[in-house]
Amino acid sequence: MPEPKPDETHPLERSIERGLFNARWLMAPMYLGLSLCLAMLTFIFLRELIYYAPQVLTMSADKSILVVLTLIDLSLAGNLLLIVLFSGYENFVSKLDIGDPEDRPAWMGTVDFSGLKMKLIGSIVAISAIHLLKRFMEIGRDEADAIYGEQELFWLVVIHLTFVTSGVLMALMDWLTARAKKG
């Protein structure tokens, strides 16, 4: 049976399809909420920076590395939020019409769902690695050892390796899918 032309589609079906398509706008408040989360993360970043800045002259090298790793961790989480915010909005709601194309990041509008997954898992692995590195640097400190014993460190490593393995498997699946499409 041939596919009906758009003007031959039943009005009820057209209304349902239009309603489903317009339902994508229900995601917009979620992306606005993520913008608020980014503002919260910025506040926390600035709070940490202001807290540690006066201590810079008396801080040990190990402590300064931990502070820097904390700030990098927060900035990576912010990057992750932006990736989800921009790519999610553009992929699922509407294209961003921001006027000045020179100020637009090069990757915007080019990250499809597969690319979004890879960027997400890459950011999660980086955040996990930084968190794990911070914990390793605290080994031998009484206050940290009281919180993170051998079992907690073991699980941090297992969780990190799970993220890494997931990322590799996702990349492999994307590679196999792309290869199957070519052949």
Automatic annotation (TrEMBL):
The chain crosses the membrane at residues 30-53, 65-86, 106-133, 153-173. It is found in: Cell membrane. One of its GO terms (cellular component) is plasma membrane. Keywords: Cell membrane, Membrane, Transmembrane, Transmembrane helix. It comes from the Bacteria. The keyword Ribonucleoprotein does not apply. It holds the Pfam family UPF0114. The keyword Transcription regulation does not apply. It is a multi-pass membrane protein. NCBIfam families: HI0507 (TIGR00645). Belongs to the UPF0114 family. This is UPF0114 protein SAMN05444002_0353. It comes from Vannielia litorea. The lineage of its organism: Bacteria, Pseudomonadati, Pseudomonadota, Alphaproteobacteria, Rhodobacterales.
